Write a sequence for this structure.
């Protein structure tokens, strides 16, 4: 039997990662009085916020961007910076006494299901060589750690760096920079480098709408229009964006791939448009090939550059899980039940943060963790896997970027389904108790 340093009469769970999602998972387990171990590969709390680029700020406003029940300080600016996020996450851990629950410098190496498809729990092996058995595993290892870099024909002779490793302009060689990718990170980095006097080529493979963070000087999340139903909110936002910054085509950018904001990736950055108008950022299409320090683009244009910054996202890596345990689409695990359960996958495995519903992320982690605690209680009473049950009814989700109101609708449906399952489990328990023979009692002489 695997050894355990913490024998407990009740079920014990494992949390992988002490980033923002892991903190939410731990807090929910503590609040529910459940026993657990948390393993963090690094020596700190907070995950990628410690190592993101220096100019990073939230694209969602301070109010509403914190964990449930723990708002960010109201004297902070509307859009907190990276260092403030680190401060907030560490303070949150201390306020709820989570730091002492983490085993730092310990990487989870392998998860092995016990029983049919994990029905009886998991054996968790860590970098210490120790294996422990758990009733379930909450996976909160994040999806911003393994860079995704596309393959391009030819050879580039200059410096290359992924946005996950970029910190500030000191990481750049030369003055001519190609930023590949026009998502939020790519636009942030291109804007910072343009401000610092670099000449930027921004590769935009697919068109999208560039959205301002504020309207009328206020964070848009605080505007009354945000309470409109989704079918009305979308055209109103598109009108405000067009009135504020115009169309992407005005800046020499490609036409958005879709009309609705819900059908394209959100890019909340209008500063890059400023630098396009000032000639510091030059839009270009997708890459065709490299030739030394020359980059050829899909339209045949060529630019000489000294450094390439790949703002091309990350892989959803689960290195501790065998590939045959998880179904994937385009390399991303398929999930159901608000992106918490692996679609048609193993039992007693739960994801926290393996999706990014548009808007503030920390409340998403809080909501998922709270729902997982309810799932744990229901699963202990069922003779079937929750993952199997939800896979019979839910359409599996493979994307990381998901529309908020659609995700919220799925979370609400999941709560109702859990209520029903819990009620059924209680009824079965009462029926078993009613049919069980009464224990024999000794008479008194």
């Amino acid at each position: 039997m695997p050894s355990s340093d913490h024998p407990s009469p009740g079920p014990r769970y494992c949390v992988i990662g002490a980033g923002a999602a892991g903190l939410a998972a731990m807090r929910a387990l503590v609040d529910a009085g459940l026993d657990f171990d948390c393993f963090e590969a690094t020596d700190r709390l907070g995950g990628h916020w410690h190592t993101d680029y220096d100019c990073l700020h939230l694209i969602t406003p301070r109010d509403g961007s914190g964990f449930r029940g723990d708002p960010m300080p109201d004297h902070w600016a509307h859009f907190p910076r990276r260092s403030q996020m680190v401060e907030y996450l560490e303070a949150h851990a201390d306020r709820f006494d989570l730091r002492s629950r983490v085993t730092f410098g310990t990487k989870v190496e392998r998860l092995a299901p016990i029983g049919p498809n994990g029905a009886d729990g998991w054996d968790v092996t860590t970098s210490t060589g120790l294996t422990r058995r758990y009733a379930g595993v909450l996976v909160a290892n994040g999806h911003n750690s393994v860079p995704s870099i596309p393959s391009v024909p030819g050879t580039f002779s200059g410096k290359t760096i992924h946005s996950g490793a970029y910190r500030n302009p000191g990481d750049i060689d030369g003055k001519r920079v190609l930023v590949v990718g026009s998502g939020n990170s790519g636009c942030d980095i291109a804007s910072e480098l343009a401000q610092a006097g670099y000449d930027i080529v921004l590769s935009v493979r697919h068109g999208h709408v560039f959205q301002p963070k504020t309207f009328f000087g206020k964070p848009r999340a605080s505007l009354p229009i945000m309470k409109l139903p989704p079918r009305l909110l979308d055209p109103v936002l598109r009108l405000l964006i067009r009135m504020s910054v115009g169309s992407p085509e005005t800046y020499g950018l490609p036409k958005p791939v879709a009309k609705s904001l819900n059908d394209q990736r959100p890019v909340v950055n209008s500063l890059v448009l400023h630098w396009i108008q000032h000639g510091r950022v030059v839009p270009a299409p997708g890459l065709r090939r490299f030739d030394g320090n020359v980059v050829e683009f899909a339209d045949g244009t060529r630019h000489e550059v000294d450094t390439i910054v790949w703002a091309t996202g990350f892989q959803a890596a689960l290195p501790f899980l065998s590939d045959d345990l998880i179904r994937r689409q385009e390399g991303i695990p398929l999930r159901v039940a608000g992106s918490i359960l692996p679609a048609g996958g193993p039992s007693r495995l739960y994801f926290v943060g393996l999706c990014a519903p548009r808007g503030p992320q920390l409340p998403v982690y809080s909501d998922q963790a709270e729902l997982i605690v309810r799932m744990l209680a229901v699963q202990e009473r069922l003779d079937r896997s929750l993952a199997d049950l939800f896979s019979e009814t839910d359409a599996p989700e493979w994307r990381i970027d998901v529309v908020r109101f659609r995700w919220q609708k799925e979370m609400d449906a999941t709560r109702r389904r859990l209520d029903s399952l819990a009620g059924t489990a209680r009824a079965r328990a009462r029926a078993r108790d009613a049919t069980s023979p009464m224990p024999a009692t000794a008479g008194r002489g």
